[in-house]
Amino acid sequence: MSQYAASPKVDPNTQGLPKRMIDLRSDTVTQPTAAMKQAMIEAPLGDDVYEEDPTVKALEQRLANLLQKEAALFFPSGTQSNLAALLCHCQRGEEVIVGEKYHTFLHEARGASVLGGIAMHPLPTSKLGQIQIADLLAAIKPDDIHDPISKLLALENTVAGCVQDQAHLTALAEAAHAHGLSVHLDGARFFNAVVKQQRAAAELAAPMDSVSICLSKGLGTPAGSVLVGSEKFIRYAKRQRKILGGGMRQTGMLAAAGLYALDHNIERLAEDHEHTRQIAEALAELPELEVDQERLQTNMFFIKPRPADHAPLQQFMAEQGVRIGWQQPWMRCVLHLGVSAQEVEQIIALFKRYYQASRT
Ligand SMILES: *Cc1c(COP(=O)(O)O)cnc(C)c1O
């Protein structure tokens, strides 16, 4: 079963071109703007496997500086960046301890185990994405031939749009370090957490040995993630990236989109957060719809239509040009730079129209 909604209907008035859809399925759907494309066209390029692409180097340097770590490495995807990080932190027969709801455990096909021979120990994860220190401590193995060797704690921020408490993350990292484990942060939406808390990126990164950041979500580039860490770690990660087939050539075109995003698309994430809140607050007034108030923190909101409304609501919205989440029973909707303030009003009006019609 495809998880994606049907392709957009063809509108004869647009001569067969698909009509523009407002897409709330994810923030990965963002398209590069004209200005971002221009930056990509103008980027100086070189062969990055020869370490000769100045734009890639500039992007890596910029993120290393922002997070106050020694070095960084550009990857084609967040999945590959996370996998390379896990392969660096753990050898075959060693173990990563990770939240059971985290992407590195749940949505990356267990690549670390499949390709790296790394054992994964999932921990209970609260609705808001938190794991407990007691659970971490209980999961760290003693030196016993019956166990894998605990080597890494993998964290995530944001989790399902929820900002993780920085003091708690720091305490988890300290507990891991005290037992000789390293700490990796999957920061696919790291800057959503930065902007929401109005804290420095370096502060959020400080307890972590490595951080992976997606440029292709709310930051709006067509592709790319960056792994940040120590000089030694990143040198090793470059070898892992090569093994995984992620060494790319004139990839400065993509890195230029990343530099553009860091210049123009970080602060504006606050707009996405505001749009998310506006829609969720309006929908909370509809008696037929539950809105999750707890998981309403950054650029995601979760709604629970009555079971009988699930498919018809999705279909109505799609016919009116809005793609919403498909998940059941809680649908996820994600705001991003592809949705304007005016479209936020349209989205609210359409939800209201669906429910008004359903009452008559
Ligand atoms: C999207 C995402 C990733 C992986 O990114 P891809 O570029 O899609 O491989 C990792 N972690 C989290 C939390 C994500 O949302």
TrEMBL record:
One of its GO terms (molecular function) is L-allo-threonine aldolase activity. Its cofactor is pyridoxal 5'-phosphate. It comes from Thiothrix eikelboomii. The modification N6-(pyridoxal phosphate)lysine is found at residue 217. Keywords: Lyase, Pyridoxal phosphate. GO terms for biological process: glycine biosynthetic process; L-threonine catabolic process. This is L-threonine aldolase. Homotetramer. The keyword tRNA-binding does not apply. Pfam families: Beta_elim_lyase. One of its GO terms (cellular component) is cytosol. Residues 23-303 form the Aromatic amino acid beta-eliminating lyase/threonine aldolase domain. Belongs to the threonine aldolase family. It comes from the Bacteria.
